Amino acid sequence: MAPPADAQSVAAVTPGQLPAVTVNSPEVRPNRRTKPPRREQNARNPSAVQASAPVPPQVSGGVTSASATAGPAYLQPTAASAMTISGAEVNALPFSRAGEALEAVPGLIVTQHSGEGKANQYFLRGFNLDHGTDLAISVDGMPVNMPTHGHGQGYADINFLIPELVQSVNVRKGPYFADQGDFASAGAVAIDYVNRLPKNTAELTFGSFGYRRALAAASKSVGVGTLLTAFEGVGYSGPWDAPDNVRKLNGVLRYSQGTATDGYTLAAMAYSNGWNSTDQVAQRAIDQGVIGRFGTLDPTDGGVSSRFSLSSNWAQSSEYGQSKISAYAINSSLRLYNNFTYFLDDPVSGDQFSQMDRRTVYGLNASHALDMRVAGVETQTRVGLQTRGDDIRVGLLKTFRRETLSTVREDSVSEGNVGLWADTTARWTDWLRTTVGVREDYFAGRVISDTPENSGNAQASMTSPRAGIVLGPWYRTELYGNAGYGLHSNDIRGVTITVDPIDKVAPQDRVPLLVRSKGADLGIRTKAVEGLTSSFAVFVLDFDSELLFVGDAGTTEPSRPSQRVGVEWTNQYQLLPWMRLDLDVAYTRARFTDLDPAGNFIPGAPAWVAAGGMTFGGDSGWFGALRARYFGPRPLIEDDSARSQASLIFNARAGYKFDNGLRLQLDVLNLFNARTNQIEYYYLSRLPGEPIGGVADRHVHPAEPLAVRLTLAGRF
Q: Is 356 exposed, middle or buried (0-12, 13-18, 19+ CB in 10 A)?
């Protein structure tokens, strides 16, 4: 297997432009007398099925967050489901919101149950991941998931993402990778931004339901480096009877110098958003004509959020290996107003509540990779240190039309963790390589609560071994096996709690700070058919305690032990130089593993998900895409007596790129105007005049109807 040349992309991608994906024959071997290059950045390119000719090196604007762990591609730990998706592939797809750009990841569903400023809902490998639990998301080396968050453990708000700046999306699924810790058991998605644009860009988009967006992005040489700037403004009302009134401002300032393996970046990001929201509503309210399909039962729901960050990535290569250090500081705030149960708890003022989260996050990641021969065997050993600290002010308040009535609880939390990890990958023969690794995580924190009985300290540690094996290639095909232990952390307030924060008397059970996960994958990836890259994986993943979203509380809570067994089939076919087809299908059986009369189905866990479509186009002329996404039915309660409906939504794009740099693009979202739902829950709520005990019902957030968006862009 020949390692590719340094092919770090430094160019932003025009939507509709297909990436130049080249795939090597596995039979080509590296020249052992020549030190292999250090980077691999082929879109969705498996490590075993490489390019037929090396990709010429490009001038890099600086290091990325992933480059420190780069080494000879054939020594990198991998799995059948691991891949790198280029920014070209991400931006070739039509999507309605920034978070949906991540649906380029096979098997990942990204949806929304509230306003456009709230974190998305994520579904992967049979998990309802709520707003990010067990899916570790990072941007430019900075974690997006937030522990002990006001709205749910692992809350991951990706609304600050500017898709046009995405260089690559690195995808790994399962707890098999030593450099991945908290929240990464189902998967990890690492997004890197470009360092330099090929041309400056300005875009204006206008669309249905008051959608408007402006984007300006430019890069220029400053000294021996490159300065990248980007600004985005978005407004949106939506089809809702109470308009969303989204007001989003977003900016990036980034300086880079050097190359992917010898250089550094400095970046500042700023994001602010305010919105109204139509949360999920009781289906009976629609059926009875109390509200319309796009109506609301509390028009004062909504929120405001902001995020400011400073980050730096540094990398250096020498005869002693490759080193990388990244550091970051993030200041974020969120204030949400939600009313999920209407008049169940308070028949007079209603059940609206506010969740507040203000925090400063700081962290440092360092790693070193060393390539060597041990007894004639090529090896790469990587060691790393990851640290993170969160200073948090978090609260839950009772509100009425966004006015505070009382404080349920308010806490100051200091929480931190340190992770030490190491792995070694060895190429024993031309057809066998193995990886063994281990990770040690230590978590500690302190809660100072307005209810003194709920204050306290907590700490825990966990050791997580991981291992993998790759066999082949034979006939341009490789076989993969992976197994490992992982973890996720619980909200530390649940670790120190002793009494109910409302009545201050009723005793409450505590939960462990860390929860064990363990999993295994078997897979195959092949390019036996010219132009077709296909992979198939079978996986199992167990949790000692499931984290579930509680609809009537608006948060995640620890639940019962669980197991998921599933299969994933991913295909990408370069039919013509200007046309690509893809199809991804996944099935998962998700069940609780203990005995409980309530049942063993996991609420919100999808069995079937699928996506597929076609993209076409080149550097100029016509381009476009057609994309379908299937989101299968899910059990809504443990006995499976209530189930969600399935959804099938098509999005389409058509456009033309002129030789003078202008681009005209039309996106049609929900092409066939499917009358379906983004999300569904089942729980008790109460409308005015209903029994005091409430009514158990399906609560839905409908998918937006057919919408069109027209973009005019220029490159100069």
A: middle
Q: Is residue 16 pLDDT above 80, yes or no? A: no
Phi-psi region of 210 (alpha: psi -120 to 50; beta: other; left: phi over 0): left
Q: Taking a C-beta distance cutoff of 8 angstroms, is the pair 614, 641 a contact? A: no
Instruction: Map tokens 């403004």 to a residue.
Output: 233
Give the tokens for residue 186.
């189902």
Percent of the chain whose predicted confidence (pLDDT) is above 90: 84
Can you read off the two tokens belonging to residue 522? 């078997």
Helix, strand, coil share (%) of the chain residues, nearest 5: 5, 55, 40
Query: What is the per-residue pLDDT across 29-71, written as a single tens digit (0 to 9) for each?
Result: 333 333 333 333 333 433 334 333 223 333 334 566 654 334 4
Q: How many Å apart are CA 16 and CA 263, to the nearest integer?
A: 31
Q: How far apart are the C-alpha atoms of 129 and 135, rounded to whole Å?
A: 7
**Whole-prediction pTM:** 0.90
Helix (H, G, I), strand (E, B) or coil at 710: strand
CA distances from 583 to 13, 155, 236, 311 (A): 22, 29, 31, 36
Instruction: Identify the pLDDT of residue 260.
Output: 83
Q: Exposed, middle or buried: residue 320 (CB in 10 Å: 0-12, 13-18, 19+)? A: exposed
Q: Residue 72, preceding bond cis, omega within 30 degrees?
A: no
CB 94 within 8 A of CB 627: yes
**Tokens coding 9:** 């992309």
